[in-house]
Every structure is written in C-alpha cells, then in structure tokens.
Amino acid sequence: MHVITQKDVENVIQKRIETGHKGTFGRVSVIGGNANMGGAAIMAVQAAVKAGAGLTTCISHKANLTALHARVPEAMFIDYFDNDALCKSVFQSNVVVVGPGLGTDETAKQVFSSVLKNANQTLIIDGSAITMLAEDDQLKKLTPSAKIIFTPHEIEWQRLSGLSQAEQTPAKNAAKALELNADVVLKKHGTEIYHLSGKCSKLTIGGPYMSTGGMGDTLTGICAAFLAQFKGDQDQILDAAVYTHSDIADLLAKERYVVLPSEIADNLQKYMKHRCNGQIL
Amino acid sequence: MHVITQKDVENVIQKRIETGHKGTFGRVSVIGGNANMGGAAIMAVQAAVKAGAGLTTCISHKANLTALHARVPEAMFIDYFDNDALCKSVFQSNVVVVGPGLGTDETAKQVFSSVLKNANQTLIIDGSAITMLAEDDQLKKLTPSAKIIFTPHEIEWQRLSGLSQAEQTPAKNAAKALELNADVVLKKHGTEIYHLSGKCSKLTIGGPYMSTGGMGDTLTGICAAFLAQFKGDQDQILDAAVYTHSDIADLLAKERYVVLPSEIADNLQKYMKHRCNGQIL
Amino acid sequence: MHVITQKDVENVIQKRIETGHKGTFGRVSVIGGNANMGGAAIMAVQAAVKAGAGLTTCISHKANLTALHARVPEAMFIDYFDNDALCKSVFQSNVVVVGPGLGTDETAKQVFSSVLKNANQTLIIDGSAITMLAEDDQLKKLTPSAKIIFTPHEIEWQRLSGLSQAEQTPAKNAAKALELNADVVLKKHGTEIYHLSGKCSKLTIGGPYMSTGGMGDTLTGICAAFLAQFKGDQDQILDAAVYTHSDIADLLAKERYVVLPSEIADNLQKYMKHRCNGQIL
Amino acid sequence: MHVITQKDVENVIQKRIETGHKGTFGRVSVIGGNANMGGAAIMAVQAAVKAGAGLTTCISHKANLTALHARVPEAMFIDYFDNDALCKSVFQSNVVVVGPGLGTDETAKQVFSSVLKNANQTLIIDGSAITMLAEDDQLKKLTPSAKIIFTPHEIEWQRLSGLSQAEQTPAKNAAKALELNADVVLKKHGTEIYHLSGKCSKLTIGGPYMSTGGMGDTLTGICAAFLAQFKGDQDQILDAAVYTHSDIADLLAKERYVVLPSEIADNLQKYMKHRCNGQIL
C-alpha cells in the first residue's frame, strides 16, 4: 500500500499556466445542504473555492443562500428545487460533489437522482448520499457516466459495501471498490484510498483534533478543486487532496486542541503556495 | 471551599485518544434563541464547537438559521417548532443546554417542557429557562432523568431557590442545590459551584470586563463541550470549564477594556492546547 | 472653546468596579435601520457593544435581524413594528439612539414618535431623525423627558436650527442648542460640541479618511456606550466619546487611505484599555 | 501602447482634501446580483467601499440584502424591483456599475434598461450586461448620456464587438471602442484598455492566481471608487484602478496559490495608503 507523502502533493500542485482563465481551472458543483445542515455544503464550497477551483456553484436549499454569500461571495447559488438549473450546472461541471448535509428524505433522493443522471465527468459521493445509495434500489439502477469517488467513513462504508467493520480489510475493500466501479476514500484513523486502478494508498498523518462535524465536508471540497484544476495522474491528485487536508490540520493542531474544518479551508491558499514551491509551510 | 486552579484544567484536558471520531467527543444540543435573542444560542453553540464537542446542534427559532451558519457552519440546525426532531436530538445528546435567549413565553415553555422530558444524560439549565422553572408549577413536575446543572446569576438563583441575595450563603446554597438535586453554578463576582456530591468550588479569577450580554451563554457552551468529551471526575470537569471561561477572559483583558463573549469562544482552541500540555498561554 | 484632549478620555475611562455586572454598565437601545439602510443601525450597535455597554438592543426592520446577529451576536433584537416591545426597551434604557438608517417615511415617523414619548434618561437623535424633527410639527410637540443630544452634520444642523452654513458661528450655534434644550454635536471638519451647560468643546483631530458612509452611525454607538457606563461630568463623557472615535481613526489612518466605521468599532476595546491605563496606543 | 506603472497609481491617489465630506468622494451605485449570483454584486460593493467611495449603494435582488450587510454594513441597499428608487439612485450617482451577477433574463433586461436611461455621469458596464447589450436591439437603442466604460473578457468582447478572438488586435479593438463611443477594459492575460481619447494602455502585471470567479466584479468596484473620488486625467484614473487590482493580487500571490477577490478588496485601504505616499507596500 502506497504511503502518501508530501512529495505526492508537490508533484500535483504545479505552477499555473500563465494564460489560464477561470474556465482553465475547472467548474465545481456542490449539491447538499437541506434546511437543517446547510453548513456542510457551505464548508465544502468554501474549501473548493480556496483550493483554487475556477468557478464553484452551491446547489442547496434556498435557506442556505445568505449564509453562503456571507461566507463565500465568490460562489454561485442554485436552489436545489430548480431542477433545470441543477441538471445544467451538474452537466457542465468538471467535478460534482453530492452529499454534504443533503439528508436522506424524499427531496434528497430526487436531488441525488438528478445528479446521478447528469454528472458526466467526475462525481464525488459523500455522506448521506452514500447512505441513500446503499439503501435505495431505484438509485442503484442509475449508473452515471461519470468517474465515481466515494468518501465514506467506516459506518457508511459498511452500509455501501456490506462489509462489517471487522471485515473491512484492504483486500476486501479493494475488491469492493472494483465491484462498485469507483475510487473509495475510506475515512478513518489512517485513511485508505482504494483506487479503481488497483492502487491502494494510505494516510499516516492527521489526528483526533480533526474529529469534529464538517471535517469530511471540507475534504470533499478540496478533492473537487484538485481534480478540477490539476492535470496528470488522477490517483495521485486524489491522494494529494486527502494528504493536504490532514497536513494542514496537523500544522494547525500545533496551536489548537481541536481544528475546525473552516480553518483548514482558510489555510489552503498559503499551504498550496508553499507546497507548490516545494517548501515546508 | 475548593478554589479552582489551573491544575484542575490541566487534569481535565487530556490528549485525545488517537482513534477517536466525532461520536467519541460527544453530541451537544443547545436549545434557545427566540426571534429576538438568537445571538445567545449562537454564542453558546460557537463555544461548544470551539471547545471540542464532536457534534453540535442548535435548536432555535428558524429566524436564527442563517446567522448561525454564517458564524458556525460546523453546527447543525433544528427549528424548535419541529418537536419530533427536537425530542430526538435532545434524547441522543450527551449534554443538552436549554435557556440561552429562549425567553419565557408560551413557546418557550413548550420547548422547555419537551427538553425536560427527553434529556437523559446531562442537562444544563440556563437563563430564562431557570426563571420559567422557578415560576411554573407544570414545569416543576417534570423531573428529567438527566443529571441537572443550573447556571443562574444571583437574581435567577433567588427566583429558583427562594433565597434572597442576602441569604445566599454557602451553607444555604449548598443545601438548596441538594434539595434541587442538581449542581449549581452561581455566577457572580467570585462564582461558586455547588456540586451535588457536596463539593463546593470557588472561582477567584475573572473580572468586570466580562460584564456584558452573552457572557453566560458562552459559559454554557464551554461547560457542555467539556462534559460531553472529557471522562473522569464530573465535578472537576465542570470546575475546569468555568475556570477556562474566566481564565481566557483574564488573558484577553490584558489588551481589552471589555471582553466579548465571542472572543472567548475564538480563543478556546489555543487555550485548551496550551493547558493540555500544561503550559501557560 | 475647550479643545478636547487625550486627558479628557483618560479622565472618563476609569477602571471598572470589581463587582459590576451587566446592569452596572448600562442598557442601550439603538432604533434605526429600515429595509434599505440596516447597516447603519448595525454599525451603531456594534460600536455600543464594543465600547462596553452592558446590554445593547437593536430595534429595527426585521430584515436586519440576521445581519445583526451574524456580526454582533451579543446584541438583542426587536422588530420596530412591535411597538410594545419598542416602548418597553426604550423606557428601560439608560441611553437611546434614534436615527441611524431610519429614513423619513411614515413608519420612521411613527417609530420616532414612540421613542420620543418613552425615552426618559438620555436620547441621542441622529441622521434622518434630525431631519424628521426639523420638518414635522407633530414630532416637535413631543417633548421627551430625556436629556437630548443631537448629532447633526452641517446640513442637518441647518435644517434643525434654521441657521445657514454661513450663519453657523459658535455664538449662534450655542444659542440655538440652548433654545433646543439639547447638547449638539456638530459633525464637520473640526467637530464642535455645544453643551447645554454652556460649555463648548472642539475637536482638532480626525481627518478626511473618515469621510465615508456609516462614520456617524458608529459615533452614536460610542457616545451611547460611554454615557451609559461612565459616571461623572456628562459633558466630559460626551467629549471623550467624540474624541475616541476620531483618535482611533487617526491611528488606523496611519496604515489606511480610508478608515471604515466598522474598523473603528473593532478597535474600541484595545483603545479604551490603553487610555484607561493612561498609555498611548 | 502605454504600459501602466506604479507611477500612474501614485499620480492618481492623492492626499484627500482636509475639508472633504462623504459627498466629496463620490456616490457609487452597483446594480447586479440576481437570486443566484448575489455574491458578485456584494464583491463589487465591498471593493468600492474599501477603495474609498464616499457613499455606495447596492441595487440587487432582495435575497442579497442580508449577506451584503453581514459583509459590508457601510453600504446601502435598494431592491432592484423598486424601479423608482433604482432610477433615483442611478441618476444621483457619480459612477454606476451594472452587470455583476445580474444575469440575462427579463428582469435583468428591465433593470439594465432603467440604468441606461438614468445614468448620466459615468457608467461601467460589466459581465452579463455586456452580453445583454450585444444581443438585444431594444437595449442598443438606449444611448445613455453617461460616459461608458465596458469591462469585458475576451468572449464578452467578441459578443459586443463582433471581433473573434483572433481578430482582437489593438488596432481593431481601438477602432471598435471608438465606434462604441466607450472606454473598453479588455480583461485577459495582459489586460488592455482602449480609451475613447485614443490612448491605449496595457497591463504587464497580474497572473493566473487571479483566475477565479468574482475577480472581475471586484475590479469594477475599484474602478468605480477611483473614478468617483479622484480628479484629473480620466484615462490615468481608470488605468490606475486596473493596475491597483492586479498589483494587490501580485503582492498577495507571494503567499497564496490563488488570490480571492474579497482578499483584494480587504487590502485596498493599506495599498492605497502606501501608494499615496509613493511607497512600495
């Protein structure tokens, strides 16, 4: 199993081409945030914007419009009940994230269903969207044309894979990822990434100061921005995004008992600048 | 009477276990914030999140949703008129705070009543909830199964205990706490904590730069997060939370004429890191 | 004419009494902010809170609730159409500010009328409230029992006093303040304060980096907090508030081409701490 | 072609006259921000306020009121459906910006039409307003009395000028600007400014860390504030605004992989102070 290192990040974060414009660095859509859990979608969007996505759209319950713009005026907004706009934005996005704070009710299912039908490049499926997919046969039948990345924690992985936590061995996880035709970022103490290519990567950094609500939402935003803007080895890009998330947390934890997800987002720009130059922050 | 010291804090704030996840560090629900005093609930939630609670939910008037997410996207939200969701969240929480900005009208009473019926672990009763309980016989009859902590200032304690301020001697306060079957944090110049165990603790730090609206709301959030995440001597954990609140205020007051409650919250992570290592900030 | 100096500020900002609680440091109500100009009321409230008022309430159009709590969770809110709550809050306040962003329409007049009838301690009349009073005979008949302070700029002073800008000499201004039975803070290059006591004070600090929308709103908040919390010579307290506002601006202008009103508010706590100790910031 | 330098900025940013008040430094109205793209208008307003406009009004969908005031309480707000208030504000403004986040639907067209009819000093036409003007014959017939500045990127310029990107040579661009009777800021790698005077200016600073949503919105706010407050050579003032935007970005990019538009706004005051004194930041 490949242990992800700072070198992976330095390989991925390259100097931007001089003539690049917004479109060059990718379009990201984040679909999530019902009337109770809007913060999750906002944190994912904030991370995507600060990690360098060219254009980022938040597709959410309209109750979340104002908090989004108060925090991230750089992002655009679509009411997730506006299905036409949702489908168009998902269709045009280089990377789509679905799940942060989406919930599992009927609305969530319809929204998720539209996403599955329209995503056609890269689709990151997180949180409650994983749970819905694990439990709903209608949703399972929708096989998107997009490359799929799941980002479950161990309980969500159990629901999706059918593997109990005891059964979640590297071999079984890798086989299941293959069966699901997806990359799987299995979030836990020592996060593992099962790539569809067969490559398995492991994180040996991070810590329990990251165990707070919203941490996974921020991770999805970083993954989305990295995949949207960087060219090259897709496995390494995903590995680098996961490493970046925890490496910033480790740096912040030197001065903090707990690290908040939005603080990780706030430090992305400086971290990426330093890693781009091959320096230590 | 035990004088709380930095040593109490250092005993309580231990290094987190490496394999801990969000659930390990506790669920907190804060119930408060009517259409006029939403800031109070938001400040309590902010303090709970930054003091390290694993998952924090704000249960409030829906007018407060957006300001909450603009300040603390890490928290979840429940409209306090959604009684089913309220009861479920309260029931599942390790620590519940009720009162900050809740008011004393009919809605407040119904909300408080639901909380009293469903809280089953630790319940911190603050502000207007204390006043309601002191004045409403229906509410008094609801004896929750949860361990109760009251956080009154002297006037609220007078209402609840029937003791005039002149009568509020340590002996009488301790007896009344026993009679109420609760811990009592009596907030004043030289805050005293009457534990149900019989232990009485006293704060000799803090100052009048803390005399501003919202200071008590922030205290409840810190108490909740400490009780939700730390193991061991419950009396010492509560003492440590109260000390932390004032110790941060003292540190900030070196550079400020008044200290704002939200500034105390903003400094929790660094303070706790330093106290965890046994260092002075 | 008395030139206000740092010494005035140092005389006014005294160490807080150790046993002081929220009530000790005064209640402030700010009435302003229609559906278009809510920021004005929010800036006044923010300044009052950070200048040390014990309890601050914003009475405004309900459209401004969320932005208020997103910026200043420490403040309470009352919808200005809730006349009962408005009257009660105004009646109970040590200092009331009316005018910032209130406008001059029928709603504004009704709100202002309620304020004039209920304020009974100190009432600061600012901005559009000055214009309304100058132009409306009904409002003029309402003679509040509160001590009145007007904070007009030169055009507003012309409307209120009937003195053209050319006629606004110290002697005529002082006579007019006496006739109006009020203190007048005449805001301009070299602000002058005409006290009802006969004392006239002059500001020789400040500068054109302060010429931006909202600067006067912030001034009202500082005046309110100073008058609400400090004891002693009322003229000197008002002078000190006016000086504090411009002195912070001067300090910030060393590093800024323009100074924003909310930045002045953000620096009040540190400024007041230093002036309290007789130090230079 | 004139290469814009720091010297242009230093010539433009002069010390403010001592007796200047809010009105001296100009009124700016920003019209933009539909229910999906409010952040764009907010970022333009934020930049105008921080770049020193005396009074700034945001005219937008009412969904954007709260996020505006949460970020920029200094600005006033008008619902863009309130046509009377819109027309009055536009008429009274020294500089009007139309376009950021406005969209191209029927509402956008009506709003834009009102702006074209009422702007009478300087009108900056940006983003979707350029697209509407390029495509709608009704709008083309409205010839405003204001001096016009277009701020297209290359695709928008293609729509407006009819020149394909390959055809966009300096000579053809200059001729087209003359034909359009407007200054044109053609935003691209090496932004060019075609002044109606015949002067052509070029930017040789800036970089791909600026390629993120909202960057152009922030530029319009800076241009508006510069034109509203500074006297003298109008071409040089516009050049200086464009240079300022990219120069701040370059400074921030030393520590950031991407630079966010709102960060540029946050650094305007300090940058302008230093350039005013002829110093390097």
TrEMBL record, chains A, B, C, D:
Keywords of this protein's UniProt record, alphabetized?
Answer: ATP-binding, Kinase, Lyase, NAD, NADP, Nucleotide-binding, Transferase
One function term, GO molecular function aspect: ATP binding
All residue ranges annotated as the YjeF C-terminal domain in the record: 5-275
Positions bound to AMP: K187, K188, H189, G190, T191, G216
Q: Which SUPFAM superfamilies match?
A: Ribokinase-like (SSF53613)
Binding-site residues, (6S)-NADPHX:
A40, G101, H153, D217
**Cofactor requirement:** Mg(2+)
InterPro entries, per the entry: Carbohydrate_kinase_pred_CS, CARKD, Ribokinase-like
Enzyme Commission number(s) of this protein: 4.2.1.136
Show the catalytic activity.
Answer: (6S)-NADHX + ADP = AMP + phosphate + NADH + H(+); (6S)-NADPHX + ADP = AMP + phosphate + NADPH + H(+)
Q: Which GO terms describe its biological process?
A: metabolite repair; nicotinamide nucleotide metabolic process
Which NCBIfam families does this one have?
yjeF_cterm (TIGR00196)
Q: How does it assemble?
A: Homotetramer.
Q: What is this protein called?
A: ADP-dependent (S)-NAD(P)H-hydrate dehydratase
Q: What is the lineage of its organism?
A: Bacteria, Bacillati, Bacillota, Bacilli, Lactobacillales
